[in-house]
C-alpha cells in the first residue's frame, strides 16, 4: 500500500516539500543505478561500443552529489 499524505498536498507546506525533494533524490539515485549498471555491463561486453562510459558515470555522480548536498545540507524547509 502506498504511503498517504495526511492532508491536501501543497508545495508551500515545508513537510511536503522536504518529502518531495527526498523522493526526487531517490528517483535520481535509482535512475543513476539502472542506467550506469546497464552501461557498464555493455562496456564490459564491448568496450569499443561505449568508450565514454567512465565520463558519463563521473559526470552523473558529480550531479548526484550536488543534488544530495542540496537536499540534505542546503535546503531549508521553514514557513
Tell me the Rg in angstroms: 17 Å
- Categorize the overall geometry: elongated
- Calculate the mean pLDDT score and round it: 90
Domain tally: 1
**Count of helix runs:** 2
Helix content: 55-70%
Oligomer status: single chain
Order of helices and strands: HH
Number of strands: 0
Describe this structure in words.
The protein is mainly α. Helices cover 68% and strands 0% of the residues. It is elongated. It starts with 13 loop residues before the first helix and ends in a 5-residue tail after the last helix. The mean pLDDT is 90.
Task: Describe, in short, the structure shown.
With 79 residues, the protein is an all-alpha fold.
Short descriptors:
mainly alpha, elongated, 79 residues
What is this structure's SSE topology?
Blueprint: H1 14-45, H2 53-74
Amino acid at each position: 500500500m502506498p504511503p498517504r499524505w495526511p492532508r491536501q498536498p501543497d508545495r508551500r507546506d515545508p513537510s511536503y516539500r522536504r518529502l518531495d525533494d527526498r523522493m526526487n533524490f531517490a528517483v535520481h539515485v535509482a535512475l543513476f543505478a539502472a542506467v550506469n549498471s546497464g552501461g557498464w555491463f555493455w562496456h564490459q561486453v564491448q568496450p569499443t561500443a561505449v568508450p565514454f562510459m567512465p565520463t558519463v558515470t563521473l559526470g552523473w555522480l558529480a550531479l548526484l552529489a550536488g543534488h544530495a548536498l542540496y537536499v540534505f545540507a542546503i535546503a531549508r524547509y521553514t514557513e
